[in-house]
Design a protein that fits this description.
alpha+beta; about 35% helix; single chain
């Protein structure tokens, strides 16, 4: 049995199928457009605000240096190793975890004397740096002061610096962020009320900038020996973490 379908019916089906496929393509393109161009109410108000959280730094990082010189590279290396080991052992005796003690630099190089038009080696100089982290300095700086003094009496002739920072800066940053958002809302509310408008929902929000303070330096010049009693009291003080946010609100 043969089924005869007229040509015009095939043409109609083809047109309908083409329209259906075209609608699918348009729908997909519109969805992509919406993803990249989210709709924003024309009646909006934007506000930028800063939030600040203050706290005493709870982590101190000390960079302790040993500079040594001698007639041979081995003599210099042995001298530095003995002093570095003495400093490391002293830090451990103060309760510092071995994982918080790191050798951050070690070098031995020749020194030269220029005579008769040429350089000749007249000795060697070595430089070694040890990084020590001291936790809980917001509660007490006793251990920090002891290590600074003990480093000098155990062979260090250069305290390259002490940096104060936070164990968990993200926690302070989140506090500052929440304060910034609350301030932005309050300021936007005041502005909307003054204009006879009603503040609506948040349309968009972004973080403009944030600031976590850098290290506070403290140092002892090379060659200056010191003990615990001669060291000044080290105070970490208080540092501010600030965050800026930009918030857009709907207004009615």
């Amino acid at each position: 049995m043969e089924t005869n379908i007229k040509p015009w019916l095939w043409q109609t089906l083809a047109v309908l199928l083409s329209l259906f496929l075209a609608l699918i393509v348009v729908d997909k393109l519109y969805a992509v457009y919406q993803d990249f161009h989210p709709s924003v109410s024309k009646n909006t108000i934007s506000m930028a605000a800063d939030g600040k959280a203050s706290a005493a730094p709870d982590l101190a990082t000390i960079n302790i240096g040993v500079i040594s010189s001698g007639s041979t590279a081995k003599q210099v290396q042995d001298d530095m190793t003995a002093k570095a080991n003495s400093i490391t052992d002293f830090a451990k005796q103060q309760g510092i975890d071995p994982k918080d003690i790191t050798t951050s630099n070690f070098s031995v190089s020749p020194t030269y004397d220029y005579q008769n038009g040429k350089n000749t080696i007249n000795g060697y100089q070595g430089n070694q740096s040890i990084t020590v982290k001291v936790h809980g300095v917001d509660k007490s700086t006793d251990t920090l002061s002891k290590i600074l003094g003990g480093a000098a009496t155990n062979g260090s002739n250069q305290i390259q610096g002490v940096s104060f920072s936070f164990e968990d800066p993200d926690n302070l940053k989140q506090q500052a962020r929440l304060m910034a958002v609350a301030k932005a809302r309050a300021n936007a509310q005041d502005l909307a009320s003054a204009s006879g408008l009603t503040l609506g929902k948040v349309i968009s929000i972004s973080e403009g900038s944030s600031n976590i303070p850098g290290p506070i330096p403290y140092g002892i010049s090379p060659g200056v020996a010191a003990d615990v009693k001669s060291l000044p009291t080290i105070e970490p003080g208080s540092q501010d973490v600030t965050v800026t946010v930009n918030v857009t609100f709907e207004i009615k």
